[in-house]
């Protein structure tokens, strides 16, 4: 059997393999890679998966997309199991119960945030593909981070053979813990760069680098930002896992999910799980003040606004990079229509949908928005009444469930980070704070290394070339 193939949302590249889309990241026409079909999981199969450990379940889910023609089964098992073994919980993403809802804890990986689920896996796939001939065995991963992606990428790629990892972050604009989580990784293949600018400036440099073919090919550029297909795929497993754990206790339940959302990668994995035939209930898009997605799902208006600084910084976005994948499906999987939409959006900063399309979007997703006061209220309520401490991102997800009036044991709230990562915000609701996990507490006294660059494409590209080629040039 051959594996699922992939095409760009904008139609410029078709029929690529899993290996190719993982290595390439973004499509050359600036579209995103989407699977050409969704493998189905039958109800018998799902039942048979009920008894599996998380790691074995992950192997089965991912093997639906990745057959022997891409990665031999024993190698796939090795990659997936090593990725899961990086987590502090045997269940990888355990479910706890608090305040009348199941909370899916996605933060037991090395950097205490959900991005580890995907980036541990991506790092291992990269390594395997390089070992087996992709890119001549070399890859320069260039990423931009506002906080969590950078450290998760660094922990996924540290020490990996053939890979240089260069992470740009806005100088002075990521939290001290987030910065330390990156800069205390001293492996020689890891390079943290503080850029004089905003997160968007960093992201623009990354995008522009991908759009410079000569540079892209010279350094063998790869992406870890949330658009890499592998990340979405890796995240589908915990939707399967949660569905099975909730229906262990409530057979036949339509399990809903509330997902604190920024770039739409996490909740998209839930949508894709549904496309594979898992009878999930509602998917709730939970946003902070940066509510472009909430406005889309309530009014059909996808209008770009300036970024607002919130207490859940990993959800501070003005456009959602993965949303193009959902829009592609909403456009009936028609690349020409999607390309038109995106062209319009890029020139006017607005995309409007209405009528049946809006109805369809609203049947796929619910949404809600939690501002700072609401988020802090939920953190306080959960700590005081239920003895459970939420991080500000996770609290946005819980607030959405409360606002929509569906607090129950079948509505899972995704907890995307450990509260110990965001002490300043959490302390506004809960004072004094419980002590942070030891791994976070000791960051302050560890050695660190970082470089600095102006907000200048050419300077950053020269930095990357120097790291990749050293003095061999
Ligand atoms: C990245 C992140 C999110 C948002 O996830 P998306 O896939 O971008 O929607 C939410 N919470 C935390 C803690 C994150 O790091």
Automatic annotation (TrEMBL):
<dbReference type="Pfam" id="PF00291">
    <property type="entry name" value="PALP"/>
</dbReference>
<feature type="domain" description="Threonine synthase N-terminal">
    <location>
        <begin position="5"/>
        <end position="83"/>
    </location>
</feature>
<dbReference type="GO" id="GO:0009088">
    <property type="term" value="P:threonine biosynthetic process"/>
</dbReference>
<dbReference type="InterPro" id="IPR001926">
    <property type="entry name" value="TrpB-like_PALP"/>
</dbReference>
<keyword id="KW-0456">Lyase</keyword>
<keyword id="KW-0663">Pyridoxal phosphate</keyword>
<dbReference type="InterPro" id="IPR051166">
    <property type="entry name" value="Threonine_Synthase"/>
</dbReference>
<dbReference type="InterPro" id="IPR029144">
    <property type="entry name" value="Thr_synth_N"/>
</dbReference>
<protein>
    <submittedName>
        <fullName>Threonine synthase-like 2</fullName>
    </submittedName>
</protein>
<dbReference type="InterPro" id="IPR004450">
    <property type="entry name" value="Thr_synthase-like"/>
</dbReference>
<dbReference type="Pfam" id="PF14821">
    <property type="entry name" value="Thr_synth_N"/>
</dbReference>
<feature type="domain" description="Tryptophan synthase beta chain-like PALP">
    <location>
        <begin position="104"/>
        <end position="330"/>
    </location>
</feature>
<comment type="similarity">
    <text>Belongs to the threonine synthase family.</text>
</comment>
<dbReference type="InterPro" id="IPR037158">
    <property type="entry name" value="Thr_synth_N_sf"/>
</dbReference>
<dbReference type="InterPro" id="IPR036052">
    <property type="entry name" value="TrpB-like_PALP_sf"/>
</dbReference>
<dbReference type="Pfam" id="PF24857">
    <property type="entry name" value="THR4_C"/>
</dbReference>
<feature type="modified residue" description="N6-(pyridoxal phosphate)lysine">
    <location>
        <position position="115"/>
    </location>
</feature>
<dbReference type="GO" id="GO:0004795">
    <property type="term" value="F:threonine synthase activity"/>
</dbReference>
């Amino acid at each position: 059997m051959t594996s699922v193939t992939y095409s760009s949302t904008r139609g410029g590249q078709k029929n690529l393999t899993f290996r190719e889309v993982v290595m390439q990241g973004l499509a050359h026409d600036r579209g995103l890679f989407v699977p050409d079909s969704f493998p189905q999981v039958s109800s018998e199969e799902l039942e048979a998966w009920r008894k599996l450990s998380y790691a074995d379940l992950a192997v089965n889910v991912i093997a639906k997309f990745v057959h022997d023609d891409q990665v031999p089964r024993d190698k796939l098992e090795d990659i997936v199991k090593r990725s899961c073994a990086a987590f502090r919980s045997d269940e990888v993403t355990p479910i706890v119960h608090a305040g009348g809802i199941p909370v899916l804890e996605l933060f037991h990986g090395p950097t205490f945030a959900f991005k580890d689920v995907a980036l541990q896996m991506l790092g291992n796939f990269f390594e395997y593909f390089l070992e087996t001939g992709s890119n001549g065995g070399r890859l320069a991963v260039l990423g931009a981070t506002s906080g969590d992606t950078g450290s998760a990428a660094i922990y996924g790629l540290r020490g990996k053979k053939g890979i240089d990892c260069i992470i740009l972050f806005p100088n002075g604009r990521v939290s001290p813990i987030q910065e330390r989580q990156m800069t205390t990784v001293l492996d020689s293949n890891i390079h943290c760069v503080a850029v004089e600018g905003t997160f968007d400036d960093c992201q623009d440099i990354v995008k522009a680098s991908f759009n410079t073919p000569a540079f892209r090919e010279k350094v063998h550029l790869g992406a870890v930002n949330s658009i890499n297909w592998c990340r979405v795929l890796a995240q589908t497993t915990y939707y399967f896992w949660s569905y099975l754990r909730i229906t262990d206790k409530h057979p036949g339940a339509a399990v809903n999910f509330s997902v604190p959302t920024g770039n739409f990668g996490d909740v998209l994995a839930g949508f894709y799980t549904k496309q594979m035939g898992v009878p999930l209930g509602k998917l709730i898009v939970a946003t902070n003040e940066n509510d472009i997605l909430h406005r889309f799902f309530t009014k059909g208006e996808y209008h770009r606004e300036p970024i607002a600084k919130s207490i859940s910084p990993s959800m501070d976005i003005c456009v959602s990079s993965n949303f193009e994948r959902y829009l592609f499906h909403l456009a009936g999987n028609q690349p020409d229509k999607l390309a038109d939409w995106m062209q319009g959006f890029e020139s006017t900063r607005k995309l409007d949908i209405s009528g049946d399309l809006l109805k369809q979007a609203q049947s796929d997703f619910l949404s809600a928005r939690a501002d700072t006061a609401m988020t802090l209220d939920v953190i306080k309520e959960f700590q005081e009444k239920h003895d459970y401490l939420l991080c500000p991102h996770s609290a946005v997800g819980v607030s959405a469930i409360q606002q929509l009036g569906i607090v129950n044991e079948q509505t899972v709230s995704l907890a995307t980070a450990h509260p110990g990562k965001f002490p300043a915000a959490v302390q506004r609701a809960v004072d004094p704070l419980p002590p942070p996990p030891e791994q976070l507490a000791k960051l302050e006294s560890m050695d660190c290394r970082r470089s600095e660059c102006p907000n200048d494409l050419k300077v950053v590209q020269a930095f990357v070339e120097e790291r990749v080629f050293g003095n061999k040039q």
